[in-house]
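Hi V.,

Quick status before I head out on leave. The structure for the redesign project is tokenized and pasted below; the design run finished overnight.
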């Protein structure tokens, strides 16, 4: 297992180097006025005060995978102010402490029922080793090992996926996976994982 993970990381590094060399890395391709596209509560990067990415790599769309995570830390947020702080905390952890280019996830969903833009639809994430170049990563903010997220948080995640399909960013034949199915981890927590097994397009797949 460890050797396989090292191989996947090596191959992802090669792909990244090739994209950099070909000029497919862009400084800041985020659309700062994207909330118009959504019929549910949505906060762009500028809305929650995101720091600019170090660099970005274009994601080839539509993607065939949607991967669900829980943040574990930070814990659940129930108000928009709490969720904004959680987003900033995750970006600080990923970018400043782990040395990543940006917050790792494509999107986050708070307990307030709001979807928060992470790396967005167009950029390669850093959330599931071996799948970053062909997936959208959605994190539900909180620890969902033993309890479910509130219904509005679950519904917002489902609506985001449906909107991604509608906009052509996610393949209509996408596969829905929990993080634990592609990486040795307990994420997205036992309770949340059991929940997503009932969602449309869930795929019974293990690495």
């Amino acid at each position: 297992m460890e050797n396989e993970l090292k191989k996947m990381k090596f191959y992802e590094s090669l792909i990244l180097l090739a994209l950099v060399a070909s000029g497919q890395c862009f400084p800041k391709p985020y659309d700062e006025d994207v909330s118009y596209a959504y019929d549910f509560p949505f906060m762009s990067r500028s809305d929650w005060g995101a720091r600019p990415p170090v660099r970005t790599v274009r994601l080839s769309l539509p993607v065939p995978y949607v991967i669900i995570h829980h943040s574990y830390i930070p814990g659940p947020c129930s108000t928009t102010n709490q969720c904004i702080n959680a987003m900033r905390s995750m970006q600080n952890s990923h970018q400043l402490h782990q040395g990543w280019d940006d917050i790792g996830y494509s999107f986050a969903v708070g307990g307030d029922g709001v979807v928060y833009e992470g790396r967005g639809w167009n950029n390669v994430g850093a959330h599931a080793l071996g799948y970053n170049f062909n997936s959208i990563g959605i994190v539900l903010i909180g620890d969902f090992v033993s309890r479910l997220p509130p219904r509005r948080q679950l519904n917002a995640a489902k609506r985001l996926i449906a909107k991604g399909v509608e906009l052509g960013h996610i393949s209509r034949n996408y596969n829905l996976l929990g993080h634990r199915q592609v990486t040795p981890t307990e994420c997205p927590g036992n309770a949340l994982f059991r929940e997503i097994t009932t969602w449309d397009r869930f795929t019974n797949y293990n690495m």
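Above is the designed sequence. Residues 1-11, 13-32 have pLDDT under 50 and may be disordered.

G. will cover questions while I'm gone.

Best,
W.
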